[in-house]
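Lecture 7 notes: from sequence to structure.
We start with the chain below.
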Amino acid sequence: MNRGNLPRTVGGLKAAGHQQRGVKAEIRDNLLAILRAGGDPWPGIVGFDRTVLPQLERALLAGHDFVLLGERGQGKTRLLRTLTGLLDEWSPVIEGSELGEHPYEPITAESRRRAAELGDDLPVAWRHRSERYAEKLATPDTSVGDLIGDVDPVKVAQGRSLGDPETIHFGLVPRAHRGVIAINELPDLAERIQVGLLNVMEERDIQIRGYTMRLPLDVLLVATANPEDYTNRGRIITPLKDRFGAEVRTHYPLDVGAEIDLVRQESDLVAEVPDPLIEVVARFVRNLRDSAAIDQRSGVSARFAVAAAETLAAAALRRAALTGEDAAVARPIDLDAVPDVLRGKLEFEAGEEGRETEHLTHLLRMAVAETARYAFAGLDLGPLEDAIGEGRIVTTGERIPASDVLNALPELPVLHEVAERVGVNPTDSAGRIASAVELALESLYLSRRLAKDAEDGTAVYGP
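Predicted structure tokens for the same chain:
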């Protein structure tokens, strides 16, 4: 829609046949239109198609405020931010109004006065949907003034009386009028501050220092929370929890495919990372979530998987700089960088002190073995094992170029099959082929068919 052709006065708005809708009705209509057209209302959201999204869509169609409840790194904030895509692209507001009021329904004293004076000549501005989403991280120092509003001493000093409603400086919630207001980590909000939201959610008015202002606020109020917050750091007070129409539980990706899609989508990779190594990262993260050594109450965030993939790519880029290779392609040897770099992102159970790297290395090897087992299922790696058994030694490491890895082995048909299994063509770069070959060698080592000596960033495969 071209904003330049939109009406600029209330009279023009009426002549154009514009109909006013509340924000929840607007979201409902747009969501239904997307669903009927077979579109995707939630671009960029992975792994929630059959679980979270149907519940969320029902909550929106019912016109409910809602809470997303889930562990850290499950995409709750990302999901809330996609709500802007369900708003109209452009929405009319009274030009110059503090709260973005609809031209047909001014709610502040100043806007009502202007509407009465100007009538159909009341000027109209147009607000993009990206401006109709507000987000607040609930921190313990958040005040009622931040969320709802407070008396503005500057306005009082200008000569207005304390009883004048125009002395009020509005907070974040009233300023989100006719839009979406999201509060992240709601239980971290002090209970006395949560009380300030009760009227907003039920009566849709606000109270500031003894003022009761009948502002018919039109907002969709949404929030996020971690399950542990209900009992540990804080809680959502019962009256406020009761006012949310829906509580939607989020989760980590339910299968490896969704985890891989998420890593690919969210990672900013500085080098090429072949699909099998992304799968290793995905399986590694899933192993961490099943490990008794990891504090599962804290969770293993999807950000960990993204950081692992980015660390893997960075290790490949560094290796390419050291070896002088033109193209940086990640190889299994680069996985060694992941545990040491990312150990601090995890919370371990009590009693595991000193064994963190041991646990991470073990779980990473499991992920490599699982990935290789699926990739090479039914493929006889015996000829590769025999070649090593006949005295061939393959050395890889952060200072070993891909060409040296390949030159250490004879021309074997099985190597072409290995490459083909992971989507690598014979004409591809040496880096891609070496990555596939290293995965096969590591698979033979983990199944105890080859020996491996690893030290100072170098690994030697032998009989």
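Points to note: The chain has a mean pLDDT of 89. The radius of gyration is 29 Å.
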